[in-house]
Amino acid sequence: MVQHFHSGTIDYDIVIEHGALKHIGDWIDLDRRIMVVTDSGVPQQYVQAVLSQCRQGTQFTFEAGEGSKNIKTFTAILQSLIDNGFTRSDAVIAVGGGVTGDTAGFAAACYMRGIDFCNIPTTLLSQVDSSVGGKTAVDFGGVKNPIGAFHHPQAVIIDPDTLGTLDSRLLHEGLVEAIKMAATCDSALFGLIESADSLDDCMDEIIYKAIDIKRRIVQEDPQESGLRRVLNFGHTVGHAIESAREGSLLHGECVAIGMMYMSGGSARIRIENLLKRYGLPTADDTDPALLLSGILHDKKKSGDTVTVVYVDTIGSYSFRKVTTDELAECLKNGRL
Q: Of 38, 75, 139, 316, which is most buried, counting CB atoms within 10 Å of its CB?
């Protein structure tokens, strides 16, 4: 299955194919210097599958985890690109999860003012969400993603076979991003996830439909000036929890909790039940004052208000501008 992303001058394929890792040259030019950026948690077999197809392949590996998504890793990638003689005609390929894609993509965006970048996401979270849309960034100053750039890939190559090496916690945290998109934009997809006896039976369909939602939204609003903000459902509070927890909770787990703060009515009940079904957290005991401080440093803040995404009916959403006082009450009460 191939989806095509097109917005203005941005044009690339999003490939979803079992076994795609074995022939990535069908979608990206490998006859040049290629730096494969990965992390220590990615099975080496996936990295080698990519490197074996490159004429001049170089590997850069950093320590797995959100803690590596920082300026130090970013500059180390840039230094390696310089040391290995990369030019503007060469490329970076990310093989891994969201941290890998965001950090490698940001390095590609900045090196010589931008070189080609290909994303090969190997986690469910990165496959259904972070690999598509062109957002690249690193964490800084205790804040998530404040430094980054829009830099769209030349291709996104998704091989669902890579999910076979994920443990259930990583798989389920990735499912949160699909639940997020379904809750806001596609009641049928939400129903599919709700009714599934086994994720294995419908995983390809979940990936395809989640990407289709994100692709259509980003094509309409590539720079996140309006509609694209719907993809932030659960992230306003979720990012603050993630920063406060300093890695003890995964990104998707924090977004799961964040969705509970910004949902009501029948949607809140259905979201909570679905999250619990997959062993995902739905509440957090972090000091509300600490969470508020995190939110007020977030890039979603504009002036004296923060625009949040609210869902009270599955498949639809509304944007709400809330004040600092309203946010403080929300964080105390666990819901807006």
A: 38
